[in-house]
Design a protein that fits this description.
The chain is mostly helical. It contains five helices and no strands. The chain has one domain (3-173).
Length: 174
Amino acid sequence: MPAEWVAIARAISMANSLSQALARNDLLLEAIGRNRADTAKRLAQESENLHLSAGEREDKRRMALGELEGAYTAALAKAAKPTGIKSWFMGVPSEAHNAAARAAVSLAVANGALGRYESKNQNMARARKHFEDYIERREDEERWRPGLEGPIEVDLEKTARERAAFAEVVARVG
C-alpha cells in the first residue's frame, strides 16, 4: 500500500475519533446544563425553606453537592471512551475531556466554598465561646477580688452591653 494511502487512512481515523469525541462533548455539555438547572432549582427550593434549622440546610447543601459530584463523575465516565482516551494520550485532548476538566475544576471550587463556609461557622463558634469565657472570667474576677472578704457588686449593665455588642457583630458577620 502506498504511503499516501496510509496517510489518508490515518487522517480519516483521526477525523472519526475527533467527531466521536465532539459527540461525547455534546452529551457532556447537555449533562452539565441539566445539572446546573437542577442545582438552581434546588437552591430556589432551599430559599423557600428558610424556616429550616441551620443544620438541616447544611445537610441539604451537602446532599446537593454529592449529587452534583456524582453527575460529573458519570459525565467523565461517558467522555472516557477508548477513542477519547486514545486521542488524549496522542497529545490531542478532545473537547469532551476539556469540558470534563472544567467540570472537575468547578466541582473543586464548590467543595472549597463549602469548606470555607464550614470554616467560617467554626471560627464564629470559637469566637463566641472565647467571648463567653472572657465574660465569665470577668464576672468571677469582679465578684471575688483578692483581699476582699466576699462577693462585690457586678456591673450587670456593662456586661449586658458587651454581650449585645458581640451579638451585633455576630449578626453582621454571620
